[in-house]
Amino acid sequence: MLLGLVAGEEDGDSVESSLQLRCFETVLDGLWLVYRAFLNARGPEAKGYADDVLEIVEWDAGRLRSYRNL
Prior knowledge:
Layout: H1 2-7, E1 9-10, E2 13-14, H2 17-29, H3 31-39, H4 44-57, H5 61-68
């Protein structure tokens, strides 16, 4: 669901842009939680969702690359 909100789509429908922006900003405030979910994922699907969210909201490409290499 989080991925759908930050990506601007939920069940194939476009999410209102102001809602998408608020979700994006909220995820940035808790970015460490997404990284924790990425690192502690119990399977490839969960890790993939976290990675997709990070791909959208992470402004520091070097940091994301470093975490992907762990």
